[in-house]
Design brief:
Blueprint lengths: L3 E6 L3 H16 L4 E7 L3 H15 L4 E3 L2 H7 L5 E4 L6 H10 L3 E5 L6 H14 L3 E4 L6 H11 L6 E11 L17 H17 L2 E9 L4 E3 L20 E3 L5 E8 L4 E10 L4 E8 L2 E3 L11 E4 L3 E4 L14 H7 L13 H22 L7 H20 L3 E2 H5 L5 H9 L3
Parallel strand pairs: 1-2, 1-4, 2-3, 4-5, 5-6, 7-12
Antiparallel strand pairs: 7-13, 8-11, 8-17, 9-10, 11-12, 13-14, 14-15, 15-16
Helix pairs in contact: 1-2, 1-9, 4-5, 5-10, 6-7, 7-10, 8-9
The structure holds nicotinamide-adenine-dinucleotide.
Length: about 425
């Protein structure tokens, strides 16, 4: 298989996770991309990732601190994988398209609709591929969840209920997850949630929400980062930071289909943490898939009762995974993979699927599943919730996507001078 030369731009925590995903793709025997360079404003970070790549992939990618230099010295590189912090995406992606690269950009595409539109404009001019890194829907259990809903197993969807509460006053993952202009935790995690909700239920039309910043001071707790991906920089995290990004958003969602959602994102919850998720339809209910865990799905159908695990597969006889996910997860029809595929492997497999799709799209000109418009809508729903809280009224996604109202986004756009 021809391997398209690519570079990772952004060698922090997620750069490391993407590297492990490339390892999984190489091991699958279906690699269609090859890491040949790493670029980061911080040369030490780029070198750290290049060292890890050498250990993991067997060859050391070349190190750069600017994409312009990289493009001059390695004109063979066809695509960049942008894993820089969220606030920089619009700028980095714009430059990447101007330099003639295809782009896989981590979510969110940008922090504002205006930022997304800057990227979209540059992408359209370039004629290249733009894929947004939204890997969670690629989990085999999310694919099965979607197939069950589409098959009408729980009937017409009425309601999606989703919530979580945890965090207290700890720094969650990394300090910039508490800075509005770089990518607050609600948007950072929220675009994932929204992507899955709309994947199952169709587009959201309107949001009514209340948001808060309960904890303006955050403290370095016992856990920092995700797994061990950020350990290398743990000493750089200050003991205390000033936070200005929302840490609680409680939203009511109206879907175009007529269904209704309730979504609680609470990152300043002290005491007992909590998490729930449920989809209710006209014939039954199901708990949405928890990605990367592989837990069996359970549907509860009126007059039938509970159906769980492999038996769920009988409800969707035509459900099959594509070749690469089937190879990575062990079968093209999976009722669960818990206990068989460890969390860490599931994590790298999902991102490996993104890389593979990027390679395919470059090779045959097809459009990625999560394209610029899906990425922008995922962001727009989050920002509609934040805008709704500022205005004290329901806000439509159309208003946000058309920038008819942008009071929440205004200070972010001003910060980035866009
Ligand atoms: N899909 C997921 O599950 C998932 C998980 C975690 C993070 N992410 C996303 O990945 C992105 C990166 O997150 P992270 O936690 O790795 O951040 P991070 O702060 O750990 O790393 C960012 C890196 O980008 C570099 N950088 C910043 N601006 C740059 C520029 N203009 N050019 C080159 N390098 C630059 C920094 O020096 C740093 O090394 C974010 O957008 C985040 O939302 C996605």
């Amino acid at each position: 298989m021809v391997r398209i030369p690519i570079a990772i731009v952004g060698a922090g925590g997620m750069g490391g996770r993407h590297l492990r995903a490339l390892g999984a793709l190489y091991e699958s025997g279906m690699a269609n991309v090859e890491l040949v360079a790493v670029c980061d404003l911080r040369e030490d970070n780029a070198n750290h990732l290049a060292d890890l790549a050498e250990q993991m992939l067997g060859s050391r990618p070349q190190v750069f601190t600017s994409m312009e230099t990289m493009q001059k010295q390695r004109p063979d590189i066809e695509a960049v994988d942008i894993t820089t912090d969220s606030g920089s995406h619009h700028k980095v992606a714009e430059i990447a398209f101007e330099l003639g690269y295809n782009v896989l950009c981590e979510k969110p595409l940008s922090l504002t609709v205006r930022g997304c539109n800057r990227v979209i404009e540059a992408w359209k001019k370039s004629g290249k591929v733009l894929s947004v890194g939204e890997q969670e829907r690629r989990d085999p259990m999310c694919r099965l969840n979607k197939a069950l809903i589409d098959a009408g197993v729980i009937g017409k969807p009425y309601a999606f209920l989703l919530g979580s509460a945890s965090g207290g006053s700890d720094i969650i993952i990394w300090p910039w997850r508490h800075y509005k202009n770089i990518g607050g935790i609600f948007v950072d995690a929220g675009v994932h949630a929204v992507d899955q909700i709309m994947y199952y239920m169709g587009d959201i039309e309107e949001v009514f929400a209340v948001s808060k910043v309960w904890e303006p001071k955050r403290y370095k707790g016992e856990r920092i980062g995700v797994a061990n991906f950020y350990d290398h920089w743990a000493k750089e995290v200050p003991d205390e930071i000033d936070a200005d990004a929302e840490d609680m958003v409680i939203s009511t969602l109206k879907f175009k289909s007529g269904a209704v959602g309730q979504w609680t994102s609470f990152y300043a919850a002290h005491g007992e943490p909590m998490r729930y998720g449920m989809i209710y339809g006209s014939k039954g209910s199901m708990e949405p898939a928890k990605q990367r865990r592989g837990d069996p799905l359970t549907v509860t159908i009126d007059g039938v009762g509970k159906i769980s695990g492999d038996e769920v597969l009988e409800l969707v006889p035509d459900f099959h995974l594509d070749e690469l996910p089937a190879r990575l997860f062990g079968s093209d029809r999976i009722g669960s993979y818990a206990g068989r595929v460890p969390f860490e492997d599931a994590d790298r497999f999902l991102v490996a699927l993104e890389y593979y799709e990027l390679g395919q799209c470059i090779a045959d000109g097809t459009t990625p599943e999560v394209d610029a418009y899906v990425g922008r809508k995922d962001l727009a729903v989050c920002n509609a919730a934040l805008e709704s809280s500022v205005l004290g009224r329901p806000v439509t996604i159309e208003e946000i996507e058309n920038e008819q109202t942008a009071e929440y986004e205004a200070s972010i756009n001003a910060h980035w001078k866009i």
